[in-house]
Amino acid sequence: SSFFGRPRGGGGVAGCVNPAAPGKRSTLDSYFTADAEASIFAPGDEADEATSWIEPSAGEIETPFVHVDDLVTGECTALDGFRYLEATITGAGDGPRADDVPGDLSPDWGLHLVDINLVMGDVVRNVAAQAEAFAGG
Fold it and tell me: What are the strands, taking DSSP E only, across the chain?
């Protein structure tokens, strides 16, 4: 009963591209808000104490975003008529980093709240490559 991942009103197929490695499972180059509970719809309140990506004993994140390039893998998946980029959390093991990605509002939405965050580094790299190719570089 997902809201995303298939065309509405009949025929067609929903597209899926893994920007990290089209056609393959690959580690995603993710950027999230420093407050692990914030999103594009709810950026967080500076008056509230933020939920950190790391244990307090490991220090404090002092930037608005945090780069986690080895936390999530992604692969395009087709299941029950839906096509989507399946995100798998690889976890931090015994390290001080969080093992969870917030943003799953409901089963119908999946991780749509953070879908661009999951692949931000990959998208930026692809845009840079396209710009260079367009400029003849």
Answer: 26-27, 30-33, 65-68, 72-79, 82-89
pLDDT in tens, 109-121: 778 888 889 999 9
Domain boundaries, the chain: 26-134
Of the candidates 125, 98, 102, 99, the residue with the CA atom closest to the CA atom of residue 114: 102
> Per residue in 39-85, pLDDT tens?
666 655 554 555 667 777 777 888 888 888 788 999 999 988 888 99
- Between β-strands 26-27 and 82-89, what pairing exists: parallel, antiparallel or unpaired? unpaired
Contact in structure between 50 and 34 (CB atoms under 8 Å): yes
C-alpha 111/C-alpha 95 separation (Å) is 24
pTM of the prediction?
Answer: 0.79
